[in-house]
Queue: 4 jobs
Job 1
Amino acid sequence: MENNEVEAREALAEVDRIREVNEHHLRRPKRYWIMFAAFFALWVLSPLLYAVVPEPYGYFLPVVLVAVVAAIFLWRKPRDMRIRYTLDETMLRQLMVGVVVPFVVLKVVSLGLFQLLGWWWVLPVAAVATFVIIYLRFGALDRQWAHTVSHRE
């Protein structure tokens, strides 16, 4: 009887170990979150680029910067190209509340202050805040989603 309990505990310990390894492998590399955060920050900063850089170049500069950021962060081949997990309804809700809503609020407020009051410094501050918020939220959501997927029964 006691032998079965020991075997059951060992089996449960092995299942927990495999779940931890699975959870670790489900996470995406941090460079992806840096890249997405940089994209969002460039989007917040783009009205300032339109205003400062001469007419035709101001509209091309954000596009070129996005391509440069993508080339830098995707230079190495990703460790795994398969889809790690699909987003369910709960994950999409968390993404909307945790990433999209703060981004939209920062973008609208900073753009309004820039256009109405001419405060040019609001856009770089909002871009840095956007970068930090998006990077931290994407990383936290990825860890949470990997944990959720790896611990499904």
Job 2
Amino acid sequence: MKTAGMMKPVLAALVLYTGVNASEFPYGARPLSVGGAYTAVPGDAFSLFYNPAALTGGKTISVGVDAGAAYLFSGGILSNVNAVLDLAEKYEGIRNAQLNAAMIDVTQVMALFDSIKKIYEITQPGKGIVMKMNGGVMLQMKNMGLGVRNYTATGIKPQLDLGFFLGGVSTGPVPAPHLSAMLFGAARRDDGGIVFSTGVNTNPVPPEMQAAQQTLVNVLTWLQADLAALGVEISQDLTLDELANAMINGAIENGVSYADIAYAVDHIIELQPFIQFIMNQLAANPDPFTNNKSGLLFRGLNVTEVVGSYSMELPVPGLSIGTAIKFLMGTAMMYDYQVFLQTSDLTLMDLAQMQANLTRTSSAISADLGILYELPIALLKARAGIVAKNIIEPEFEMPGNTGEKLKLPRQVRAGVAAQFTPMLTASLDLDLTKTESLVPGYFEQYLGVGVSFDPLFFPSLRAGYYRNLAAENDDAFTLGLGLNLMVVQLEVAGAISTQSVQVNRDAAVP
């Protein structure tokens, strides 16, 4: 509504945006509700951040206030994390076995190797977690705009340390645990030799477990051979049949079902190529599992952005140009969270403490440049727009005096919008550039479409969809509702991914 001398605030109340492999998080509830397709939509305060040229021909005065949050799991990382959670349930038994040079049962062996494989897969490019939050205040006065926005992006990238100790002598008061001891029930003598633990149950397994026992003997045969090839000597105090009995009996004594034991043995066979791969990795990095440095690398950036924008019509009919000058104050964060060495659980509340202790603040200047053109199409108001954001790529110094910097990359985005009737508008946006996120190897390039229905005396309804063209299974549907409350326009929007991943037996993350 355009009314000379009247100001109508737009309050954008944004619900939490959830998704597995979800897409980019647009600024503002109204742009989000149409899939982020807002580059060619003219006339309100949100244009300040989408396309400054769209300020031309807009409302006399409008104010926008918005806030939102989002998270995404990239590269199918949740399925990997779910497997690692299985290891957490068995970790105490594995840890005790390492500290006491005691044998672990066959299900713990399977969980150990399977989880190492899943952790290894997590470290591959493109897998990680990105969390985003933003909020701001925007003022549009005809063809000028002012705004302040704060946004935070945090990337979480898993790291893997395959440092297990295969053999050798410890000089400390407690022998350094090693993989051969855990698998074969061996303990060290004072002179560095290896003897087998006396507390293992080598009695014959129940008849229902005899087939699994014979399969496990075959597994131990090639596993022992692989260890020997790496120079790890295994004592012959017990036969492989007795070892297989002990590992299965140990699982039974730990309350594991026969079906789960049989599955564990079969799955170890499936893992043989990977086990042989990590054996070579372990030999090159002899470090105890109890000193394992696997963990999560947090890289984050909090930016407060002050923006001034101006747009103008050019002599060409229907053509407008606009620019936004930005001053940015950024705080970069880096934190290496080592899972197995941590003494307490990590919670989201810890992120605030990380920001206080492991951050560095710096500033930068940048600019956006946009163009909007009203297409000469009869009986239809159609516009095309293009915007280049961060023409001068702002950089922010990372903590630790390493010289590393986080950069906001240059982005180019184009869009079209068509107003079929005064109440019905459709829009489409496309990123012309592909950018890398805070998770290394995870790239973003979005296509967004949306439709808006704005009746005069009823709530506005909006829907949209957007997809990350640079990743697989990375899309989301959006919905929005606009309420005209006389002096206030209230916008509510949300989005949800089309994908889901089962993370436990009772629930799934959508």
Job 3
Amino acid sequence: MSGSGPEPNRRAPTPVRWQLRHYRWPLALLLAALLLWLLGLLHQPLPDSSGWPRVSGSHQADRADANAAAATPMPAAAALADQAAFTQSKRALPASLRGSTPDGAVTLDASGRLRPSIELRRLFDYFLSAIGELDLAAIRTHLLDTVAATEPPALTAEVAALFDRYVDYQAELAQQAVGFGALPADRLAGTMALRRRFFDAATVTAFFGAEEADAQATLRRLEIGHDPALTSAQREQRWRELEQSLPPELQAQARETTSAVLIEEQSRQFEQLGIAAAQRHRERSAAFGRAAADRLAVLDQQRADWEARRAEYQRVRAAILADAGLGPAERAAGIEQWLQQHFSASEQRRVRALEPFE
């Protein structure tokens, strides 16, 4: 593979600065949320990936024959037949992909050869999301038909070879991930080593570079959070320094991840302490800006209204169920009637979903 070129520029979201005011947020909750997020990031196998076939023996030879055929110029009649097959293939797309636009793209270097990129990985993942509806052979056919519609046969063969390697990597990851260990650092190290067995350095950087940098930063953030020698101010300073050391596109993401957890934790603190709406707005304006504080105030009111209505439903439901003069059918009908009078259809589904936990 040739070296990776510069990725397309993306505008980073405006950074949100967090300033601790009168509260010290329970650190354990923040760290637990970050840990759960990291564990999900380190190993995200595609659906049913443990059952994917490995590339070996005659299956690999079949792929080589197919790729060689793809690189051979076709006469006009064969080209027309191929176009008809492509049209038929499009009709056979699974329901989950039908009518959608493929995510990602085939990217080229300056010489016109395939350049690994995160866009290409997204294209692979888009088609692989149909696992469970189609087998791998059909998914591969749909991918290559899509590429062949706009790219020459030689480039389509390059895409096929890299896709096959990516599928083999996913299958191996599903099999070996359990052996990487339970600690996030060990899982990250095992995943990174496996990627380097399957791909060259340029492809690893293009496909997984940002993800690995983000995971490593999250591990470091957890280490800082667990360091008992640091004061709250020192911990905040270390986190800011860590964010500033990241690539620009990850700095904004790191701030958003931390801020989202802190906003939720701040809201819980406000509820527990019974903080008045005016003081909540001042605290949030100082930390996240006036516009964010306004939006959060609206959410507070919506949440309070919802909780009040749900509490009233619980009271009415308990009274109906306790009424000895009603039979089972009458109780069910009474509860259903009250629900329909006081909640929308979507709200009724939410209420019923919460009942087993009450």
Job 4
Amino acid sequence: SKILILLERSFTMVHLAMPREFTDHPLPRRVRDLLGEENLQDTELYFKSSNSCLRANGFLLSMCSPVLHKMIYGSFSESLTRHVDLYEVDGKAFGKVLDLWCGREDSEDNELWDVLALGSIADRFQISEVVEMLEKVIVDQLSVGVCGDVLASSGGIGMLRLEEAARRLTLDRFEEVAQTPGFGNIDEDALGKLLDDDTLVARREEAVWEALVAWMTADEGALRGRALLPKIRFPLMSAAYLSSKVRQSLPPEHADWVDSFVRAALLAKAGAAG
């Protein structure tokens, strides 16, 4: 698909590994040595969405994740084997996050979506060391081609440094980012903050308007984003564009959304000329 082709050109598939200072520490090295000891696997993680199970050591899981620590040891159980149900968590991806935390190198090729998915799981379970590593992988490859998709996803997975880097790149190269498929995935609140930012770079306000219209019409079905219209600086547009192009940019049934903005902008320009 067009989106996948764009991502393949913009994001080099990578192998994932924790930093050497982490993997070479004696504790993670010892943890890796003990991973295969079946008699230490006293906890079952049951992934409801995939109907799969992972057996691991409860102490290891507690060291890895404060969230899992509360889930495993938060209630008393007489059973020697602890059982934790996990909803909406991919078992294979969780296992990969756990392996990364233990210092194992992931030899598979990972695309942007893979790294973001792993980051979402690591953030959900507060596995901060893995979040930081994955965030660095994406920041190092951040480009216009993937910026919209990253901005649409990063805030929800706790990668604040990545979110800020994507936001900065979008502001600096707004018109280019607006041409990518991922731009339509940015949520309304995030786009509103971009439009409010005085550091947004665009050749003309007309280009900002056209980018907003493309976003408003990107989602099949009802037009979205009416609340974003006041963020457009209509008086900066040319009178000819205001008179002939702005209303035509929207579907006929919604053209009246911009009437008051166009009238006010034309009056302001007439007053300035007088």
